TrEMBL record, chain A:
GO biological process: rRNA (guanine-N7)-methylation; tRNA methylation
Localization: Cytoplasm, Perinuclear region; Nucleus, Nucleoplasm
UniProt similarity note: Belongs to the TRM112 family.
Name under which the protein is recorded: Multifunctional methyltransferase subunit TRM112-like protein
InterPro entries found in the cross-reference section: Trm112
GO MF, any single term: protein heterodimerization activity
Organism from which the protein derives: Acipenser oxyrinchus oxyrinchus
Classification via CDD domains: Trm112-like
Domain of life, source organism: Eukaryota
Automatic annotation (TrEMBL), chain B:
Ranges in coiled-coil conformation: none
Superkingdom field: Eukaryota
Gene3D superfamilies: Vaccinia Virus protein VP39
Keywords annotated in UniProt: Methyltransferase, Transferase
UniProt GO cellular component terms: cytoplasm; nucleus
Pfam families the record matches: Methyltransf_11
Methyltransferase type domain span: 50-139
Protein name: tRNA methyltransferase 9B
Gene Ontology biological process terms from the UniProt entry: tRNA methylation; tRNA wobble uridine modification
Molecular function GO terms recorded: S-adenosylmethionine-dependent methyltransferase activity; tRNA (5-carboxymethyluridine(34)-5-O)-methyltransferase activity; tRNA binding
């Protein structure tokens, strides 16, 4: 699962008010070499939720001094575009979990997220969930 | 009805795709030019989703766009993944994407697997939700009207034929399609023979005469779970009959749910008899003979319920004319004893005695592709008692669309979309629609 894909994913559990972004807990991350296409990246950026992208990259330790805010005139900033390219397309989560801030978690296996909600999928109670990057830890009483 | 629909799709869509995934080869189902063109027409840097991507044959058409594939079937998604595609497993009815992310979406051969109109609408609405205003969707769904045949009803169960698959499951990644002819799998013969035999034994017992009025190939007259099990266990993988059912939408489910009870071989025909129509077409009035669908013991099947019994006269009327309409030639099948000379035919049985006259003959069909015609040929069968793979689970459900139905469905029920074009292509109705821009009237 590339971070570009992750940026579009949300929990679709009914009643969840904030199922986005899904927090990544990765146990295996892979780096790929992907041909850089400036125009492609420039066109992708407006489609992204920027803060979610930054958060995801950060949680995987691949932020690489990418600015937390979108720079203006990024279309012509090749250095910036290359950094974005790296995050969007070259960082891949192979194994791990995608956790919804409110409801369940979705496994990522062999690079494939499984977003199905089956009866056998147990939803974690929010109070028992410890999120990656969470400042505070919630413990069930 | 929702639960019934879910069960039906679980058994006759998801389960079948999962089990047949190892045999699927992209070479058997080529990427269609129209779909490819739709993808190539997208601007570079677009975000595209293939909802129901299968093995991902459309995901590599346009490398200038970001292609995301998703499918309900894990094994198929894994195959796509191995090709290097970006894919995920999800449900069309609950797409895990935020609103308005995609520039375009394709849905090729997916919508027809939803068993109720309501679910089909929901699926299309879900897709529409993920498209940016001005973005496009292309939907392909099987057509009722085919070039060389015509489905008699809109809700169909299509058997899967392993013989058509070019790939041995153990030879992943290899292309063997050149070597294998489209032919019947040898196990078919014995399987159908065993089934015919089973029916003969039935007839020779003290079963009600209505069993004897089965069509000799026996795809009918299921009156109790044992018969139904035999029926299914006898279905050869080469069976290319189309099984029709009442649409779940047609059935008055609720009032009968409480009355659901196991089938009994009581008087007359019950509603799960198969109505035979043109010889290639077999109609199962499931109404609520749900056990026909999954071939399991009836007690497990709480999806369908009984409706009123059919009178035998109705059954005969339905089976009285077996007229095969096949583009150029027509074969009229008469209900009489013994085989009709030469021609392709399907004998029927009038009374209890006809089965013997065709006892050593079974009929096989050959198909070109799973969505097109089949030709009925006659073969002789050796006496084999092989234990064969049970094919009862390999019946895929389709709701085939009449001309205009898909467009109409979208126009009436999916306000977010406006129809751009509609055409017939490769046995499918193809509709292209556009996500409306807020505040602008439909184009």
């Amino acid at each position: 699962m590339k971070l570009l894909t992750h940026n579009m994913l949300t929990s679709h559990v009914k009643g969840v008010t904030c199922g986005y972004p899904l927090l990544i807990q990765a146990t295996e991350v892979k780096l790929n070499d992907v041909d850089f296409n400036a125009e492609f990246v420039a066109r992708m950026i407006p489609k992204m939720e920027w803060s979610a992208l930054v958060g995801a990259a950060d949680s995987l330790g691949h932020l690489n001094d990418l600015p937390k805010d979108l720079v203006s005139d990024y279309e012509n900033n090749e250095d910036f575009l290359r950094k974005v390219h790296h995050i969007l397309l070259e960082v891949e989560v192979l194994e791990g979990t995608l956790k919804c801030p409110e409801s369940g978690e979705f496994p990522v296996s062999k690079g494939v997220p499984n977003m199905l909600l089956n009866e056998d999928r147990v939803l974690r109670h929010p109070k028992t969930w410890i999120g990656l990057g969470c400042v505070s830890v919630c413990v069930v009483m | 009805m929702e639960n019934e629909a879910i069960q039906l799709e679980k058994q006759h869509v998801h389960s079948v795709y999962e089990k047949t995934a190892p045999y699927l080869s992209d070479l058997r189902c080529k990427a269609w030019p129209r779909v490819k063109q739709f993808l190539l027409d997208q601007e570079p840097g677009s975000l595209i989703a293939d909802i129901g991507c299968g093995t991902g044959k459309y995901l590599s058409v346009n490398s200038l766009i970001y292609n995301l594939g998703c499918d309900y079937c894990s094994p198929l998604v894994e195959k796509a993944r191995k090709q290097g595609h970006e894919v995920l497993v999800c449900d069309n009815l609950q797409l895990p994407f935020r609103d308005q992310v995609f520039n375009a979406v394709i849905s090729i051969g997916v919508i027809h697997h939803f068993s109720t109109k309501e679910r089909r609408i929901r699926a299309i609405r879900e897709i529409a939700r993920t498209i940016i205003p001005g973005g496009m969707v292309m939907i392909y769904a099987w057509a009722l009207e085919q070039k060389r045949r015509r489905f008699e009803k809109q809700d169909v169960f299509v058997p899967w034929n392993k013989a058509l698959c070019s790939r041995n499951p153990s030879e992943s990644g290899e292309n063997t399609s050149k070597d294998k002819p489209v032919d019947i799998h040898p196990t078919v013969y014995s399987e159908e023979y065993r089934w015919i035999n089973a029916l003969r034994k039935e007839i020779s017992t003290k079963r009600s005469y209505s069993l004897g009025s089965c069509i000799s190939v026996g795809r009918c007259c299921i009156k109790n779970p044992e018969q139904e099990n035999r029926f299914y266990s006898g279905l050869g993988k080469s069976l290319r009959s189309w099984f029709f059912s009442k649409s779940l939408d047609e059935s008055s489910m609720k009032k009968h749910i409480e009355k659901m009870k196991p089938l009994r071989s009581s008087e007359g025909w019950i509603d799960n008899a198969v109505l035979v129509q043109p010889s290639r077409h077999f109609s199962i009035d499931l109404g609520h003979g749900g056990s026909l669908l999954n071939g399991q013991s009836f007690e497990e099947d709480d999806v369908f319920v009984e409706t009123t019994n059919y009178k035998e006269a109705q059954w005969w009327k339905a089976t009285g004319t077996l007229r095969e309409i096949n583009g150029g030639h027509q074969t009229v099948v008469h209900r009489k004893n013994g085989p009709v000379n030469g021609e392709q035919y399907k004998p029927t049985v009038n009374g209890t005695n006809d089965l013997n006259s065709v006892s050593n003959r079974i009929f096989r069909r050959t198909s070109t592709l799973d969505s097109t015609d089949s030709i009925l040929d006659e073969i002789d069968v050796e006496d084999e008692q092989d234990n064969l793979v049970d094919t009862k689970d390999f019946m895929r459900y389709y709701h085939v669309f009449k001309e205009g139905e898909l467009s109409h469905l979208i126009e009436e029920n999916v306000n977010e979309l406006s129809i751009v074009s509609s055409c017939f292509d490769h046995g499918n109705w193809c509709v292209i629609a556009k996500r409306k821009t807020p505040g602008v009237s439909a184009l």
